[in-house]
Amino acid sequence: MGHFGKRDDLVVHQEEPFNAETGPESLTDPVTGTDAFYVRNHGPVPELDPDGWRLRVGGMVERELTLSLKTLHEAFRHRTVTATLQCAGNRREGLIAIRDIPGEAPWGPGATGTASWTGVALGDVLALAVPSGDASHVGFEGADSCPEARPVQRFGGSIPLDKASRSEVLLAWAMNGEPLAPVHGAPLRAVVPGYIGARSVKWLERIELRSEPWPGYFQHVVYRLVPADGIPGPGVGMSLGLVALNSDVLSPRDGETVTAGRVEVRGYAFAGGDRHVARVDVSTDGGASWTQAELLEDLGRWAWRQWHITLDLAPGEHELVVRAWDSSAATQPEDEAALWNPKGYVNNARPRIRVRAIRA
Amino acid sequence: MGHFGKRDDLVVHQEEPFNAETGPESLTDPVTGTDAFYVRNHGPVPELDPDGWRLRVGGMVERELTLSLKTLHEAFRHRTVTATLQCAGNRREGLIAIRDIPGEAPWGPGATGTASWTGVALGDVLALAVPSGDASHVGFEGADSCPEARPVQRFGGSIPLDKASRSEVLLAWAMNGEPLAPVHGAPLRAVVPGYIGARSVKWLERIELRSEPWPGYFQHVVYRLVPADGIPGPGVGMSLGLVALNSDVLSPRDGETVTAGRVEVRGYAFAGGDRHVARVDVSTDGGASWTQAELLEDLGRWAWRQWHITLDLAPGEHELVVRAWDSSAATQPEDEAALWNPKGYVNNARPRIRVRAIRA
Question: How far is A223 from A218, CA to CA, in rounded Å?
Fold first, then answer.
């Protein structure tokens, strides 16, 4: 066991704050085990006393609330949603390979994972607080102090009220049927399916109804897509929110040597937002022709879709290219280099791997 | 004036049934004039008597309804939404240039347009009918008999109940402030913002709450994305619904000769679904570097976004490439050839045009 009860096969990018991605083997599980689930932290894990902990709901509401865990449990309907969380920096290593991105972790394909989350609908809590007519964003603030922020501040972010009111957005106290672990946000975290992981704020202590998006560092300065020739700064670029359609190959690994003949290829695809994965194609001729992969278990509209395909590979070098399609019939862009951006977010280029097939 | 009160500069693809796209000049207007708006018909325009016309709402409902126009006007709140409609075959000409698609019209960039639509929310009408618990799709059937269908049938299609219940989905009797013209669906049509035009059923006579998507020809057989090597048929491929992120260059035109120096480039972009256009980039070096275009008037979340940029073009040949980004930070795919499909739908490749700049 590594830190925080995690398996040893996590790829640790940073010890303090703890940042680690799910290992390649665990990524092919439809639901990611809690001990294998990625962690993206911006500060030390806060140690909160669940009995003394309170959630405050304020800002543009008719009625301010202060809620204990006990009240959350007793006053609202319990809900469980299976949802994929994905860090906006997932697959950044592909962008770093093109041009370095100093100060940012080289996340591979494992800054994502799928779990079942249990708690109450944020919308049910908001209904009790009664947002005022001018409220259009719901801000979340955690208990974690983040030294990297300027000025130093707690982690926070907001989502549109329209999304916040939908039943899939949870205030969750359990993950995969177990009480939330401290490293995943105990005693309570937001879970915002379809949005970048940064909006699923952990160690949640305060909800603020607002007329504008969250003004803090983690939404107004970072987690923004800045043009390749831009300089990150307050309000520069596009605030990230919905996850963009993405996919990756999990097996075989890039550069792996396999036995020629029938080779099973596995991976994941995630449509993001409220879209679903409609199709996944694999090409062995650089994109000139495509074969459809089989989509595996459907875990519902908020989860990734695992896929596999069996290819017949002759001895020699092969390049595999994959493209996922979402429910609008949109597919991924080809050129990874043209997606490079100063903070290294949203690498959703079609994954490409090279494998060498040798005779048995 | 051409057919049906349309301007002469529409590009007519077929006289009967009438199919014509908006001309290049009119496409740069933020709101498309009704006399310039594209028409996609599958049968002759029905001539309906508005006094005798009734809308029937049935299927999986607690209460069947038969509604006159007068009742629709008087019993429900009137709403106006500015929305872009886009045919799934928009920009098909680019796919046909790669490989012929017999029997399908070579739509250019003008099988799309933006209008203000006035009527009542479909959701308000559904609330009166009370969908049963098993209902999850809302089917629309028009009065138009379509000879191309097998078997011959009225045009129809469905959308998910979840979408149908949202306030932007209208039963509309007016377009751009005038009573709906017969060619656009008088006396009443569906308007489903963010969905392919085929779901905005014209000459609407029947709404059916269902547990499954529409089984008719225009959803179960066509308007489906079939893999390049597939054969269209019942249930084959992916049913289209949400419009995929798209854009095109409107001025200059591909192949045009311009005066070297400052050249204004204009176009549109449309995010589809409930997403918005977040950015549009233009490249003059084949995609190695990009400059952001200026986004023009924001007509709201259901409308396209016009854009423009002024480039400094030296004398000689130039290729311009454009890519739009949606609010999930997803951008368009590069390779038009790899989007070819047997029915020629969803060409959302990054538009490329060639211009020749000559000295003044």
Answer: 6
